[in-house]
Write the structure tokens for this entry.
Amino acid sequence: MSIPTIAKRLRKTLGRDAVLDRPEDLMLYEYDGGLAKGTPDLVVFPQTTEHVVEIVRCANEFKVPIVPRGAATGLSGGCVPAKGGIVIAFAHMNNVLEIDVANRRAVVQPGVVNTELSAALAKYKLFFAPDPSSGRASTIGGNVAENSGGPHTLAYGVTVNHVTGLEVVLPSGELVQYGGKATDSTGYDLTGFFCGSEGMLGIATAITVKLMRVAESVATLLAIYNTVDDAANTVTAITGEGVTPAALEMLDGLTLRTVEEATHAGYPMDSGAVLLIELEGLTEAVEEQAEAIVKVCTRNGAREVRRAKDEAERALLWKGRKTAFGAIGRITPSYYSQDCVVPRTKIAEVLRLIDGVSKKYGHRIANIFHAGDGNLHPAIFFDLRDPEQTHRTHEMSREILSHCVSLGGTITGEHGVGIEKQELMALMFSENDLAVMHRLHDAYNPDGIMNPAKVFPIRRGCGEAMVSSVKPALVEAAK
Amino acid sequence: MTTAAASTRSSDLAAIVGDQHVIEAAANLDAFAIDGVKPAIAVTPGSVDEVAAILSYAYERDLVVVPAGGFVHQEIGRKPHQFDILLRMERFNAIEHYDPGDLTIGVGAGATIGEIEAMLRDQGQLLPVDIAHSDRITIGGAMSVAAHGPLKHFYGGLREYCLGVRYVTADGKIAKAGARVVKNVAGFDVMKLLIGSYGTLAVVTSASFKLFPTPAATKTFVCQFARIEEAISFRDSVVDSPLTPMCIEVFSPRACREDSWTIAVRAGGSERVLARYARDLGASVTATLDSFDEQEFWGKAQLLGQESPVTLSVSIPPASATAVLSAAQRAADEHHLDFAAWGRVAVGSLLFAFASGMSEDYIAIVKVIRQSLPPDGSAVVTRCPVALKNEVDVWGTTPTHLDSMAAARRALSPKDNLNRGRFLF
């Protein structure tokens, strides 16, 4: 039996406390923030890159699965050990290794928490731009694996746009370098390719990220609408105006009322939808854009446009947005939050389709999402204890995602495929598309020991059975 | 190759693309020579299926295929030893979708940057690939070499705004990756591999991109400095300021003004915003350009180095700019070479051009520049006399693990028959 041998060997290298193998300890590592469940055989806590190399070599020798894990805030099962094996938890590799102000770069270990990096950078007036809503817990290693987004990715781009170099432990245990502090390097852009590969190509043990200067001025506006259509039309009208907000979020009426009861952020209880719009940049530019935004919103039927007067008001408006999913949890036994993207010109259309699905199945759906990117997060209300409802939730979810794909969109904008959507990949990709991706997978991970049974469809039979095998769960936070 | 074999090959390929899309007369292939090596045959497919059929055919017979767009950057890379089929992508010039409200576009790989720009201009939108010869450079070619111009400073490179791609692997598998929406994490980001792969992995047939609104107005603030250190310290002051210019471009003395280092800061926005730039940049500004003058300035900048026999593309962490630029300048002076340097100085993407030297001067200067680089810097010789390609490693070193690059190529081009022998490894 290889597991006890591995445990013994790793205890010797990593220390006694750095290896967990008692069932009661392992149970804590069965889940992430979302769906499926899988029990690891071991959980190990490396403190150095050398430890990671040793763990991977060991796993490779015995061909045991390895699953890297940051803070497990992911919603698609990315760090769930689908095939058991060794979970590598990066809680103790959480050092900012270098802040290079002159080059605007930081080098961090994978376990550094997203917002802690920006906190460490504040004194230099710098920040790390990717801002998933899970940022207070989620790690940069996890952000790299999932290519995380967030509200402000509208203006600044997703994680891959902010990573220039990676130190990687390959599935063979070999330690290699991709890129560095330079924006580009000669040869293939493996840094870019690695980001978003959901832990299947290797483990990043040091990550070089770009840093941005904190903007001089910020304006946060709340535009209030009687109808969802007016709010959706405003999104494309803003584009037409040539304004790129730093963030452009939409909350529908159901979400608003729920959030307001929980946070008292000052959201109107009787409106159909609001847009939360943030502008950042030079004071002059922000003021002009704010004026333009007010006009566009009003022209598109906003009954009122408020502007946060100070940092406290701004924080309150964002608190409502960032804790919205928590608030939804107060009014439904369970909910299943989706993550799909449509062209921004199709937002009104897809919201009507979602409303149709809601009525057809008789389940309420709350919409709260990154409207500026066309990235929707419809949350379907249901009761997990009722198998009938659970089944319907899957049906609804699949119907919504199919609609999005048919409108030119995607099945995931920022949560990843993981286990949750592996069978839905066929909605977007042909067998050939997936076969070629699989060839790439095999070139790096020939034995499939790195995060196995993720992303690619596992052909289990008819589509119906495949989708139903995944159980949705209460989702605490959405990105 | 026997005449009979050549004739079979040409009829086989003609059966795929049609007689009128095959060129095999030697005289007609002169224009497609790379480093003096002519293709045995040139084919111009009109559909993805035809591309796949050609690639399958070549793969089975181990023929070397060179995909081509506008033939602008083909001089980059090692000299080809085998050049069986030139695959011309110019018929893939359709605009597949353009959704101005979504700020996205999907285009065939053979569409030129100029064609795309012309269409976007009417809508006040921008694909920020601002390079010379935009009337000839195709989107597929631009992706292949990761082309960029001064706008890379603000908008990033193609890797930042390419959303999806349709491609054919070297063994003829038709595939796609990404999507046409601005945010997507489903499946591997094959776009990143293909951008900058110099046509060694697969043939791109179409791609989709995120677009940007064109600013209301722009102005370029030209600032001159006697010494490189002063220029770079000015760059730092701009980067540390709240200003968010579209371009921060450096020009060496020969590149712009005769006797000084120049930093050109281009800003976009309303009059009020541009006035703020003028105020903050202050006394360092020696000339402010707008409208025609500004266009002329950047048009000239795009043409820098076009006539030079030796050019380099250098990528460094921005803080190394002074060291690398001054090393190049010193070495150029020592070897009495004409020297110009320019580029995205805050990003660390610099370009060098040399002229009036002998081979040994060029070899020496490439060596000096490479020695001045930090460990993760790169310096690619993007143009040099063919003879020099035997003596200078045109690609130089890379911080990225070569075996990991080879793994990507094994997956997409298992026999390495796309641009064989011309790339880094």
